[in-house]
Amino acid sequence: MLLVICVGLCLFTFFRSAISMFRAWISLKMSYLINFQWTSSFFSHLLKLPLDFFEKRQVGDIHSRFDSLSIIHKTLTSSIVATIIDSVMIICLIVMMILYGSWLFWIVLGFSVVYLILRMVTYWTYRQISEEKIIKAARSHSHFMETLYGITTLKSLNLLQKREEQWMSLNADSFNTGIRITKLDMLFGGIHTFISTLEQISILWIGANLVIENIMTLGMFIAFNAYRGSFSARIANLINVFFNLKILSLHRERVADIALSDIEEESKKPFEITNNNASLLIKDLCFQYDQFTQPILKDIQLDIQSGESIAISAPSGFGKTTLLKLMAGLLKPSSGKIYFNNVDIHQLGLSNYRRQIACVLQDDKFFSGSILDNIVSFEENYERDRAIECAKIANIHQEIMAMPMNYETLLGELGNNLSGGQKQRLFIARALYKKPKILFMDEATSHLDEENEKAINQAISNLNITRVIIAHRKSTLESTNRIIYL
Questions:
Q1: Closest CA relative to residue 206, chosen from 107, 94, 91
Q2: Residue 270 lies in a domain
Q3: N or C: which end of the chain has fewer CB within 10 A?
Q4: Phi and psi at residue 105, to the nearest 5°
């Protein structure tokens, strides 16, 4: 009898281990198959969202929402297969326990119901703390990113200590909330262990009496107890998975803010210009950020002929930059139309339109790589001679050649190893490399001396491209064919 029991327990342990390994292998395979597709599709959707989506949100908040997708993916891929296998195993274990000790099974089930009720009672508290943790972590991350981007300003204003204290406070709040969640998890684990111990003692006490009274054989009791242990572990895991999936609604809501946002309108038809004509016509253009604010621009009418150079002038805060972003297709008008060569740019398709234009904006950025990489916008099959020619037009070639690594000089994403004037000239070179038919420039030469600015304006004017310039400097305004006052 003892040999049979030992062999049975060995076989049970073997199959239990095999099933656990199979479950882990299937979960791992599904995880890698799904992860790449999900994150790629989500990132692609994020990049296609309109500019105002990003202007209304902090970087840390967007990053946190992207992280929520990873949490959803990890939870689902690790839970679905495990849940299916555990559910099948639980059904089999229930049948075996009923066969070996029918009414003992109801005692085991009763303890599992107690644990389920406990999780139900504490669910909303756990959800509230989890939501608080997500929000506080996003705030801390946003503060961290803002600090890095504004490190020069913070040093110049001697605000480093204050900024550090603010970040430490935000980070402490995030960590403290995380500790509260961990404490709840520990509490659930401790309570489950306590309930499981009580269950084991109860079954051992009742089962031993049944064996003594010959109502149940020793072999049946040992087999039942083995099935009970597996059942209790799997049913507790199933309950935990169920509540983890309910908590995912928090992350689903955060992901939905991105996933359900409308992307920019695109035309599926390719569009190519066979000539160098590039005119812009603006009719009845109005723009406001939302229905609760006053319009920034109202009833704008503008006709720009191909090859013309115009300047837009107005006091600060009158919507010059907003108008330029609208003309460049970066923002969508609240009403009115913008026509490129007599075709509505939104019917043309923003990608098609942006292939024909280039912008030099006030808040332009470099990306990690060499100077050459940034000028050619990281093209694989780039034309080095054309990149050098664009640098010469932007009057930056000689300064690049004076650097130790010339065009291979590495830039950080902030370009902090360059002066303001050098940055602007590199931005101009990058814009010109696209061979744009329309060039939009928003205070693109504000950091340059008049001699450099005059040389660049003269070189660009020789390219015979349409130019739209925003500037305050009188010499810049006078270098254009026409000045438009808002």
A1: 107
A2: no
A3: N
A4: -60, -40
| 94 residue type, one letter | I
Its pTM stands at: 0.74
Pair 240, 302 in one domain: no
Closest CA to 273 of 428, 442, 466, 457: 466
Q: What is the pLDDT of residues 87-129, one digit of tens each?
A: 888 888 788 878 776 677 788 888 888 888 888 888 888 888 8
Domain boundary among 208, 228, 259: 259
Secondary structure element (H or E) that encloses residue 214, with its range: none
Tell me the CA distances in angstroms from 225 to 87, 96, 98, 316, 387, one per residue in order: 19, 11, 12, 79, 77
Q: Confirm if 311 and 469 have CB atoms less than 8 A apart.
A: yes
Eight-class DSSP state of 406: G
CA–CA dist 337, 279 (Å, integer): 14
Residue 195 is part of which domain span? 2-259
pLDDT of res. 416: 61
- Asked whether residue 235 falls in the same domain as residue 295, the answer is no
Alpha-carbon dihedral 66, 67, 72, 73, rounded to 10 degrees: 90
Identify each DSSP E strand in 41-170 by its residue range: none
Within 10 angstroms of residue 284's Cβ, the number of other Cβ atoms is: 12
Structural domain count, the chain: 2
From CA 48, how far away is CA 83, in angstroms rounded?
36
**170 with 285, same domain?**
no
Q: Note the pLDDT tens digit of each residue in 166-203.
A: 889 988 888 888 888 888 888 888 888 888 888 888 88
Q: Residue 381 contacts by C-beta under 8 Å, 6 or more apart in sequence?
A: none
The phi-psi region of residue 138 (left if phi > 0; otherwise alpha if psi is between -120 and 50; otherwise beta) is alpha
Kindly tell me if the per-residue pLDDT of 272 is higher than 70. no
CA dist 425 and 317 (Å) reads: 25
Contact 133, 178 (CB under 8 A): yes
Alpha-carbon gap, residue 65 to 86, rounded angstroms: 31
Q: Is 292 exposed, middle or buried, given 0-12, 13-18 or 19+ CB atoms closer than 10 A?
A: exposed
